[in-house]
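To the wet lab folks,

You asked to see what we're planning to order before we commit. Fair enough. Below is the target structure as tokens, and below that is the sequence we designed to fit it. If anything looks off to you, flag it before the synthesis order goes out.
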């Protein structure tokens, strides 16, 4: 094998791992469609879309072509004082696709950075109104928004590394997480949304926090409808709709972190659409490039943008070196075109049906706490945490790539997956439970 795994083990950090006692990593030779081929010859059906990103599968001819063609024009130029077609085309597409009113685009280089940008936008917005005290954030427990400092400060305080970085991160306000209930019958959803009631139990606490602290709060930040890395919890869109109303009522902005949910994953282009709301600021990332490379964006309204620019600084204070990278924008343009060409809605609906068909029976196992499916997301929540090393090796033996965490064994397969792929992924989970 040509890859030096010993060097990898000794010198290279992988996500959230030890360098003195790392778990095994599996060397990948190539990936194509929904399959990942290991250096050791195994071919694995991908159940993760490389963390929500590779929605069209790997090694896609159209995405490859976009990259090659763009590299022959220019791979990168600075975005300060220069602009280019890939960035303009992409921003147009994002404005067209996003909920109405989000029409100003900041191209960031990763999801976490787009969250930092969103939080800075909210703070600069209130500074322009001479409300310097409005610089805290209100969020809910079980959230996840990224690993940089501001993003970390609004992640779940228990799961989210707060104890480690307690003295360095800013202290924000946390309400209990929304009740993890998504209506089973989606046709009833509209009716239930009409009846959205601010007096519901799970809103009382967040309302009280707003009442007490709104003079210090810049924005509410939340993952719409699906709390991802903080527990793969799906909550009722009514809650999101109520947050929109509360944000208006208490004069704070609403930031929607659509980094995981955006671009069709939940069955809507953006999860905010489940509640029919427009946030003041929205972060997108991950699937934006079809999983090819890192790119994210923070969108906002004209009102927020104008106010920021009327303020003391006169500009928005952020500008990364690789902002608007043409290669990333070109592949994102191709990926967004593919979503439409491939009829993503039908693809996601099919995946959702197959996830239901093959995962729901798993709920019968004694070790299983809950099985839930929304769009192209399927979650098997177990009663006990899984032994990572063993389960990972087991799944590889079964010919699938599934990467559980804690008690959660979950699937977010590429949208191009076929029934046989979902069956194989679910079959491997079932085999583990029978094992
Ligand atoms: N927000 C959410 C909801 C996410 O799921 C993630 C990534 N898991 C991030 C932010 C951070 O994005 P990135 O890893 O690209 O920095």
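Sequence we intend to order:
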């Amino acid at each position: 094998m040509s890859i030096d795994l010993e060097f990898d083990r000794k010198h290279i950090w992988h996500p959230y791992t030890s360098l003195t006692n790392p778990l095994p990593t599996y060397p990948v030779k190539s990936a194509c469609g929904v399959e990942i081929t290991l250096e050791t010859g195994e071919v694995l059906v991908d159940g993760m879309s490389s963390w929500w990103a590779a929605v069209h599968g790997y090694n896609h001819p159209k995405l490859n072509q976009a990259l090659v063609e763009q590299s022959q024009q220019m791979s990168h130029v600075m975005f300060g004082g220069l602009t280019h077609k890939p960035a303009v085309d992409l921003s147009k597409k994002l404005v067209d696709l996003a909920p109405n009113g989000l029409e100003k685009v900041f191209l960031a280089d990763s999801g976490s950075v787009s969250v930092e940008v969103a939080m800075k936008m909210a703070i600069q917005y209130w500074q322009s109104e001479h409300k310097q005290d409005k610089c805290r954030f209100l969020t809910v427990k079980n959230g996840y928004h990224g690993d940089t400092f501001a993003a970390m400060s609004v992640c779940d305080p228990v799961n989210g590394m707060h104890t480690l970085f307690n003295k360095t991160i800013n202290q924000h306000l946390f309400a209990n997480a929304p009740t993890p209930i998504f209506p089973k019958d989606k046709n009833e959803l509209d009716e239930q949304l009409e009846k959205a009631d601010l007096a519901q139990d799970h809103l009382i606490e967040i309302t009280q926090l707003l009442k007490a602290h709104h003079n210090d709060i810049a924005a509410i930040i939340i993952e719409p409808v699906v709390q991802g890395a903080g527990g793969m919890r799906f909550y009722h869109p009514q809650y999101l709709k109520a947050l929109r109303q509360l944000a208006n009522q208490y004069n704070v902005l609403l930031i929607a972190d659509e980094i995981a949910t955006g671009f069709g994953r939940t069955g809507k282009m953006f999860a905010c659409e489940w509640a029919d709301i427009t946030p003041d600021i929205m972060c997108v990332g991950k699937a934006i490039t079809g999983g090819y490379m890192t790119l994210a964006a923070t969108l906002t309204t004209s009102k927020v943008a104008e106010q920021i620019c009327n303020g003391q600084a006169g500009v928005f204070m952020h500008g990364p070196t690789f902002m608007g990278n043409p290669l990333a924008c070109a592949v994102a343009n191709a990926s967004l075109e593919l979503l439409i060409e491939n009829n993503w809605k039908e693809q996601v609906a099919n995946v959702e049906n197959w996830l239901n068909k093959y995962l729901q029976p798993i709920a019968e196992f004694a070790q299983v706490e809950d099985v839930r499916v929304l769009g192209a997301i399927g979650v098997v929540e177990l009663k006990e945490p899984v032994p990572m090393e063993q389960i990972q090796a087991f799944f590889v033996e079964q010919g699938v790539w599934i990467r559980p965490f804690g008690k959660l064994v979950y699937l977010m397969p590429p949208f191009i997956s076929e029934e046989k792929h979902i069956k194989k992924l679910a079959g491997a989970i079932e085999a583990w439970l029978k094992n």
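Structural context that might help your review: The longest strand covers residues 368-374. The two ends are 31 Å apart (CA to CA).

Thanks,
Computational group
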